[in-house]
Structure formats: C-alpha cells, structure tokens
Amino acid sequence: MSAPTTRAGRARTSARTLRTDRWWLPPLVTFVGLSLFVIYGLVRTFMNQWYWAPEYHYLAPFYSPCLSTSCVPGASHLFDVPLPGWFPPPIIVLPFVLGFRLTCYYYRKAYYRSFWASPPACAVTEPHSRYTGESRFPLILQNAHRYFFYPALLVAAVLTYDTVIAFHGVGGGVGVGLGTVLMLINAVLLWAYTLSCHSCRHLVGGRINHFSRHPVRYWMWTQVTKLNGRHMMLAWASLISVAVVDLYVMLVAGGVFPDLRLIN
Description:
mainly alpha
C-alpha cells in the first residue's frame, strides 16, 4: 500500500501579496474610466438640454428614447409620458439601461475589483473580513440580469432607429455627416455588446441536450459564443461610443460647431 499523502496548507504570510508586477494598474484604470463615465452621465442627465439637433435629426443617446412630454419637438419617441418640465427624460429609461450594465457579468467583476477591492486582483488579499458573495441584498439583485436583457434589446433597437433617421440631408433627402457615422458605429457596438451577453448565449443555446437536433439554434449559439469571447472589449467600446456620440450631439445641438457633413 502506498503511504498516505498529505496536502500542504495555505501559505502563511503577512504580506498582502507576493506579486511584483503592477497588479494595481488595471483596477485603477477601471476605477478612473467608470468614474468619469458616471460623472459625465449624471451631468448630462440633469442638464436636460442640447440633446436634439433638428437640422440633422441627431438625438443624443442619453436621451433616447425620449418619452416625456417635456422633450423638445422632434425628439419624442412612440408616446409621451406626462411629466413636469424639470423632470429629466433620461430618468424613465435609465434604470433599465443601468440595470443591464450594472448586473453584467463583466461589469460586476470590474467594479467589484476597482471600487470594492473584493478582491482587487488575483492573488491579492482583500480588506474585507467576511465574504457573502451575491446571496444577500443588494447583490442578490444581480440575478435579475437575464430580465434586464430584454429592455436592453429594445433600447438597442430604438438607437438603431435614431441612426436611420440621422441619414437626413440638410434641407431634405439623404445625407451623411460625422454624427451619422458616429451614431452608426455606436449602434453596431451596442448590438454587439448586447448580443454577446451571457444571458443571450443561454437564451439561444441553453437547455438543449442535443445540438444536432437544433441546427439553427446551434449556429446562433456558436455566433454568440464568438462574440461572448470579446464581451469585455465590447463592454468598454460601447460605453465609450455612447459617451462620444452623446458629447458630439450635445456640442452640435448647443451650437459649439456645425456637423461635419460628408454627403449633403
């Protein structure tokens, strides 16, 4: 009989980590990037102006869909909710958009590490003495991610519609400006980010025991899986594109400079 083997216990060290690389840099960059976006988003939400450029049919993403009766003429979508003029229109849709982003698997990892240091990086101890995971309020609400996916699809569809009407020429007809190109890129990135979501991957390919019996769903699952492998990149790219397009439309609508027209 072979001699019984014993497993070595966990290494005892007083150091927070034995890593010698710049492990703190990624969470720091994430902290700065997300903080800047949150600050910009709050300012734009309560600014409540300069979100619609009628001559180009440009609508800022932060105000889309615009569902309030206080929306400026031409910026409204579908129906109007009777709200006081001081109430920012983004407040109607923002909970659903933020809900999808905040409960996203990648963003959870990002802000857990960068804001809560739980943990700040691999092989680095965290300052918290207890770990309860996502089993208690408010983190148990992370399980709602699958439900936020459906409103996110609707928002992506509305932003696609905004992009289509942005192909509007000055004075009529079809036209293309820099804003049109930026909105098109933003729509593509938002669709790629939304469809690369883990919930979408499960929706199209989950609960299937035999892929051979479901060739269409299997093909869809393979395509979403390819996107899912780039989910982190798409999360950042779409976040940046939303801010860039919103800022561009704000500057154009505010009269800082006219849209750079490429066609008409």
